[in-house]
Specification:
2 copies of one chain form a homodimer.
Chain A: E1 3-7, H1 16-29, E2 34-38, H2 44-48, H3 60-64, H4 70-73, E3 75-76, E4 82-85, H5 91-99, H6 107-112, E5 121-125, H7 132-140, E6 143-149, H8 152-156, H9 158-171, E7 177-184, H10 191-204, H11 217-221, H12 229-232, H13 237-255
Parallel strand pairs in A: 1-5, 1-6, 2-4, 2-5, 6-7
Antiparallel strand pairs in A: 3-4
Helix pairs in contact in A: 1-13
Bound molecules: adenosine-5'-triphosphate (2 copies) and magnesium ion (MG) (2 copies).
One adenosine-5'-triphosphate (ATP) sits between chains B (12-18, 40, 42, 44, 128, 184-185, 213, 215-216, 219-220, 223, 238) and A (11-13, 128, 151, 153).
Chain lengths: 256, 256
């Protein structure tokens, strides 16, 4: 129990938060107990699930600096079976504060190791950088799920991410592996999308999930209602893709 | 001469690099001498102009740590009248290194102040965060141009960016102001785009440029050829929008 996945990619706007929220919801919909850790100071995973980003309760910052435990920080969401460690913009200051602390890359791992028994999956939403917050997520995680937008710049940055994952594996976390790469915002009318998808499959082989997330306006509308797209419009192409992705993630876990 | 603009927004994937490259090219096309400073370790502005991100020449990292001057670091690009301070992934390490340095927020300003006489405009492409690299850009700049993607999460994060600009103005750089907000990836068929655009105009008033950059696949294809979209396909909607934006930016400079 308590399988920890980091949802990471330093390229901005590739669908990390959207994948975290909707994959978590789809896993909860099939009976898995899921926890999201919002490790991005933008707090998009927090507000995308309808929670205020300025809460008076404990949050991810408190967890990292050791002011509260995982159990004290976890909150319920509107999705049955899905809890969250919310965040606020205060987390932005943590990146600089962490630089001077002992075991600065292990803060998250030390806070959650052995504490995740209540959940089947823990999904960590990462900010668009390879700084100390993402390093903490990669050190705490057992595997990484990489959202890859079907655009040129997104593909270009992937080798830097893979090198960083290797570096974390060698220095901080031997068990870290890439569980898979999910293609996002795929537009079948657009030759660039298809070219990037083909490149990604050549580069990553069967690490690329069969499920491809299409560009689908309902997906980008859902956060303005504080809901995952599965609750906003279950039958749209975006929701159905995340349901299929959840099935693939569970099957891959069984095999590993 | 040497008007310094930071192209900034901590939200990822909103069009910072695309705006930096194509606005710079459009300004150069009307006879302005322009310099881009690539302050994002992803080095997308560098590769989007066809330069390798692993150069053996001086780069933005050298500039920040004082190993080279602006004149030594500037390189020509394929666009006449447009030079660049290229970057490599080494810059990713600078963020942590800068934390312990004297005048850590002023490193870029100290390196370029009084050195920009050869150019009419200096555009600084920022990474998707509000860490020390973006703080350096905001401290060195005279004004900020904010690309705002017409999506919900992008609008939500804007108040955090404005607060940070105010903080920099009060602590490091009195003259800093927002020159304008440019709406990007606007899709007139999508009600969310229109809703976000209306919200942005209510929030920012006439700070929002009249020019709106449409979502246009030619814009996202151009980087894979190492070219600005103005060189890849001058007559497409994306290129024309950036040409209009350049006109507006110049007019606003005359008024200020
Ligand atoms: N499949 C999709 N179809 C349409 N829009 C999408 C899709 N996935 C994500 N989006 C939209 O694209 C934008 C970027 O997605 P998101 O914020 O999830 O990316 P991110 O990688 O978390 O960004 P950041 O790097 O800022 O954390 C958001 O406005 C989101 O609503
Ligand atoms: N007007 C547009 N139409 C279509 N695609 C666009 C447009 N502007 C940008 N893009 C594409 O959207 C993606 C994000 O743009 P870009 O990389 O410029 O954003 P950014 O803010 O610099 O991202 P980051 O936060 O990672 O630095 C890129 O793949 C780019 O090619
Ligand atoms: Mg995100
Ligand atoms: Mg960029």
């Amino acid at each position: 129990r308590g399988r920890i996945l980091a949802i990471a990619n330093q390229k901005g706007g590739v669908g990390k938060t959207t994948t975290t929220i909707n994959l978590a919801t789809a896993l909860a919909a099939v009976g898995q107990a899921v926890l999201i850790v919002d490790l991005d100071p933008q707090a998009n995973a927090t507000t995308g699930l309808g929670l205020p980003p300025k809460g008076d309760r404990y949050n991810a910052y408190d967890l990292l600096v050791g002011a509260a435990t995982l159990a004290e920080t976890a909150q319920k969401t509107i999705v049955p079976g899905l809890d969250i460690i919310p965040t606020t913009v205060d987390l932005a200051g943590a990146e600089i504060e962490l630089v001077g602390l002992e075991r600065r890359e292990y803060r998250l791992r030390d806070a959650i190791e052995g504490q995740c028994g209540a959940w089947d999956f823990v999904l960590i939403d990462c900010p668009p950088s390879l700084g100390l917050l993402t390093l903490n997520a990669l050190t705490a995680a057992e595997a990484v799920l990489v959202p890859l937008q079907c655009e040129y710049y997104a593909l270009e940055g992937i080798s830097h991410l893979i090198r960083t994952i290797e570096r974390v594996k060698n220095n901080f976390n031997q068990k870290l592996e890439v569980q898979g790469v999910v293609l996002t915002m795929f537009d079948k009318r657009n030759t660039l999308s298809t070219a990037v998808a083909d490149d990604a499959r050549r580069f990553f082989g069967n690490k690329v999930y069969e499920t491809v997330i299409p560009r689908n306006v309902r997906v980008s509308e859902a956060p303005s209602f504080g809901k995952p797209v599965l609750l906003y419009d279950l039958h749209c192409a975006g929701s159905q893709a995340y349901v299929h992705l959840a099935g693939e993630v569970i099957r891959r876990e069984r095999v590993l």
